Amino acid sequence: MTSKLYPLIIHLPLIFIFSLYYKRPWLISAISVLSSYLCCQAPRWFGFLAGAALGSRLADHIFYIGSVFLAYYFLKRYVAGSVRQLMEKSHKSCLLLGGVPLFYYLFDYITAIYTDVLYSGAEWAVQFMPSTISVFYFVFVILYYAETQKQANLQRERDMLDAQFRLAQTEFASLRQLQQNAASYRHDMRHHFALLQGLASKEHIEGIKEYLRTAQSDMDAITPLLFCESETVNLILSAFATKAKQAEIMLTVDAKLPDSLPFSDTELCSLLSNALENAIHACEQIADYNKRIIRLRMYSKNNKLCIDLRNSYQAEPIFHQGLPVSQKQGHGFGTKSMIHIVEKHGGVFQFSTKDGWFIFQATV
User: Fold this and answer.
1) How much is the pTM?
2) Comparing 27-41, 317-331, 347-361, which segment has the lowest mean pLDDT?
């Protein structure tokens, strides 16, 4: 009777102790107890061999207890850490690890404790456990491989997003440096005027004209354009206005921003840079320069920042689950970075096409 009630006397209380006292998840607690029961089978076999060899039931018990301590030491040192990581990685990994212990637990109690089917020599009972273990082995290998691949892909995406964020930080630092260069250039204007006065006193008109052309070109290259009151947005849009001009793309901007933005400078730089960079890449594929057009609107509505970016395109975009998909290796992480930033701040977004325009809209 004690053997039949053993699950209620020992196993269920252990699950409750792990879950309620040690604050472990119920699934992990249950599978841990089932796995422990399975791990006792090897020491039980050593005890059986010792008892059979010495012809003593006492020897069976002594060797069984000794083997339990050795098995515990081995599992604690070499196995427990890896199994714990697998169980905590995902529910699927936990269920895969618990499948064989659960089936063995049920099989052992049904065929050896509550009935004597196993010891009666029933062929189905003898073949059941090896067959189950074989099936679970291959299922585990297939599913665990798929799970590890999924985790590896997620890790690669996280690494790429981190790289995108670090790139945005570097790009924003470069934009800051350009602004400082412009401030320094304006500060040095008195030196330019002195030089121009010297040339004028000598009536070097051509020298003055050449110097003014050079100075104007230098100022245009380092002076950010003014699109709105936000210094950060002006720096970013100025940089991409230059890139669009170099690619012979017509970029129009209408920016009326709220007083406060939900993003940090680096997040805003990453969001706008990736969006505009994708738009420029799409326009560069268009052979007709007159059809290379990008339109950006940023405005405030109900105390939220709204972004509407539209660009013309040559090849029809491919969408998967509402997101644009790049067929080029190593591309597509910019879009994921944009989505990550918008969702991080509780915003919503949409990618779509309409009347020859590729449209990205976000509200944060």
Assistant:
1) 0.46
2) 317-331
